[in-house]
Amino acid sequence: MIEIKVKSFEALTKNELYNLLQLRSEVFVVEQDCVYQDLDGKDEKALHVLGFKNNNIVGYTRIFKPGDYFELASIGRVVVAKNERTHKYGFDIMNASAEAIKTYFNETDIKISAQVYLKKFYNALGYKEIGAEYLEDDIPHIAMIKKS
Question: Is residue 83 over pLDDT 90?
């Protein structure tokens, strides 16, 4: 099990910010071999859901209230460290993110932009595909919604 903390951008420590950006870069840029602008100006608007194991960030998402990213509340930048994926922390961090959306934004309907290869993972969490697949940073994605 991982320890979950939810923080605003301003509440992040310098080390937490550095470590979460390092994790995002490790996975989204290096592992997925995708050059893209991760620092998109949206981190300041988001709440950051951090998953800690032995004081290290091993899982992460950022969440948005309705209107700040999509028309619905949303979860993005879903990431688990490669060497920690066998523990199924992706389920823990996504469930904690949905709970944080309910707690902080009083919302239960959530939209995500999912990498297509992770459709089954998100289906298992209750998300359903909407619309056609599209390319985002040259990676196939699909919009998915979870309605309560």
Answer: yes
Q: How many domains does the chain have?
A: 1
Q: Which residues of 68-82 are buried (b: 16+ CB within 10 A; e: fewer)?
A: ebbebbbbbbbbbbe
- Is 55 a member of any domain? yes
Question: Is position 8 within any domain?
Answer: yes
Taking alpha carbons only, the member of 109, 96, 98, 120 closest to residue 147 is 109
Other Cβ atoms closer than 10 A to 142: 20
The type of residue at 101 is I
Average pLDDT over residues 116-138: 96
Cβ(58)–Cβ(81) below 8 Å: yes
